[in-house]
Please model this.
Amino acid sequence: MKLVDKMILFSRFLRDNKDHKLEIDELLEFNKQYFQDQRRFWRDKSLYEEIDSAVNNLQRISHEYNESVDKVNKKINELLREQELVVLRRDYDTYMNEKRTLELMQERALKNKHFIKEISADVGFYSDWRWAGIELNPSTGTLTQSMLACDPLYIYTGNIADTDSIRSKFNSFFADKRLMIYDNLDKLPQNQMGIVTSINCYEYWPIDPIKDEMRKVYNILRRGGYFIFTYNDCEQEASLDFLAGTGSYRSYNTRTLMKSMVEMLGFDIVKEQCYREANSWMVVKKPGELTTQKLSAPLVKITV
Model:
């Protein structure tokens, strides 16, 4: 059996085993109490003692059964962690040796219109003229227009990006005057961004590079600023299945790992979403209240 097939099978076992534990303690206690209340009206209580003994045996057997299920789950978890280490090593090797060309970025670009609509709605909701925004690693700029309200709007091209394609989605004024493209996050204004997005990027990165970039994101966000990012949640079977692809397969990650990492970096989790078990994202924020000194929106009309 292939490595990823094993992981899918183990994950399925863990998920389904939860539905096969016995949750009957409350029912047994209820029945036990019912007959104990009734027995006081009888001189010969032997039959009620048999019921009491049977209930105690059922409780003991139920506990033994659940303990055995827990042991099975523990063993499955141990085997799954062993498989995870193999995949994580593979992901780091791939990340270090991969040639991130424009063609590869275009191949990985979002194509699911329904998911694009879902994530665009969130990005647009948190974008506002009162604060600056930045899109990280946008490749072809599929979602850049969702941040149109941000003033100014920055683009970070840490990966290869088709800047001509991104600029072409706006009129010449916006593309030349308000769309600012950087290739170094450290050169961006610190503590100034109201929203940062990273869409369809972390799906292909191992944990450490994600953590390094998120630290920088935390520094460029103003207090109360939002960070929206997608990732590959392998706690979802469909996302785990993406590990088995070729060429542009995704990296291993989980919701549990991501939650732990963003909280460790100091973010508060605002929202978690998953589209059809294949596209997961989080909205997190830097603690504090998002404020601005801007008094009005730009007077220039922007058309795209």
Q: What stands out?
A: Strands lie at 132-136, 153-156, 179-182, 193-198, 221-231, 268-275, 279-285. The radius of gyration is 27 Å. The chain has ten helices and seven strands. Residues 299-304 have pLDDT under 50 and may be disordered.
